[in-house]
Amino acid sequence: MPQATFEGDDINPSTTIFESKILPESPEGKLLYRYFPTVGNGHVATVVYSDAVFMNGLFNGFKGETHRARLPTQNNIRLVDTNGSRSNFQNASFSLDVFKGIFIEKFIIEDFIIEIKLFAHRYYHKIIVNQIHVIPINPKPSPLALNLIHDTGPISQDISFDEETVFEAPVNSKYKCGKVNQIEDPFYQHTKPTVCIIFMELPDILEIKSEVIHTFIASYDSDLYGASLDFTAVANLISKKQDMKILDSHVDAWSQVWNDGNIIIEGNLELAKVVHGCLYYIISSLPVTADTYSYVSQFYGLSPGGLANGALFMDYQGHTFWDMEIWIFPPILYLYPEMAREVLNCRLRLIQAARKNAQDTGYRGARYPWEGGVSGRDVTPECCPENYLLQVHITADIAFAVRQYIELTRDLDWLKIPQPNYPTNGCGFIRELAEFWVSRITYDPAIKQHEINGKICFILTFFDK
């Protein structure tokens, strides 16, 4: 069955803001979440208005069925009137500001302008934030009541959670922790990965009389301590009515990203928007390399669908491919070399699995998988054996990315100094990539040449419309 498509008009003249009067929907009126924007910060990400949050490195499923584990969102918040309707919301608009990393729903109802913001905080990076800013239009507005709809979606099929428990914080909060149901490979993972979510208890009704900002947050991390660091810090700001400080610190962090590197295109608004949009979606799935309030977890790679996608049998299931090094890496390297280094580091950290992959297939050095998840083993689905058997150019793609990195940065420390908990340094990494290719070479006396057989090279064909 063909997938529904959507074409909407972008009404904003800014090169960094995408705005529409309507949400993507089919002719039958069904919302098309495939076309919805996403917010993320490399640690967590979500499709706006969806029931899922995905977290870097959290996968569920065995081998070829491993996929991003769905966390039931605590950040899918909508407002309706007391009759459960939005029909009297006037001048509604929906926008993604990629310069600030914020999705905004805006409308007018009676005497108030309502702005609902959603963002994955870039400084308190374990946190996803909802902010509802109410602005009176008239000097003496009439009181207004709005119902708050909080849809977490169905129970996760990927994670078994414990019961919700009260979390001690300056705002009414609870938490729940759980484990994924199925590990990727018991040879590399000896225990099931864990996750904890801390979230605020939300009111059913917002009573509005004057200008006010309501901030609601949820924190996601691999353990309760990690989730509590950012949650407690931001909860303290909420309790002190410092809601704008929460927003400003996020905007400042994104502003620093664009100050570090940007591509400015003049005279072609459509192209400028495409470029800024592409950079935003890549950056929001890569780890933060600037200062953050709490520690940044190990990065497990960037899938073509980004961090906000990757459910079972969808969007490559969040797997990492050659796309990361060949297509995504070059612009990030030139603009944000520290992020590019983390792309290489995620491969380096998993080199022990690549060594075993080479050994198991009769070669030396490090052979990286065609599809990678969290363990470093090949997680290509069983449907496609020719890919994991013959798509060996992935190891050359990684080597090519390393070469580009060294040529541009001259990062001798990365080459020479092993980082804590890393199996080797950059030089060792390069050597093992080369050893794999040397072990693949055979000599053909008939043509008096060395060859590399048993492989698939990539050929991309582009068709005109």
TrEMBL record:
Record-annotated membrane-spanning stretches: none
Coiled coil (UniProt feature): none
Family membership: Belongs to the glycosyl hydrolase 65 family.
Record protein name field: Glycoside hydrolase family 65 central catalytic domain-containing protein
InterPro entries reported for this sequence: 6-hairpin_glycosidase_sf, 6hp_glycosidase-like_sf, Glyco_hydro_65_M
Stretches assigned to the Glycoside hydrolase family 65 central catalytic domain: 315-454
Source organism per UniProt: Orchesella dallaii
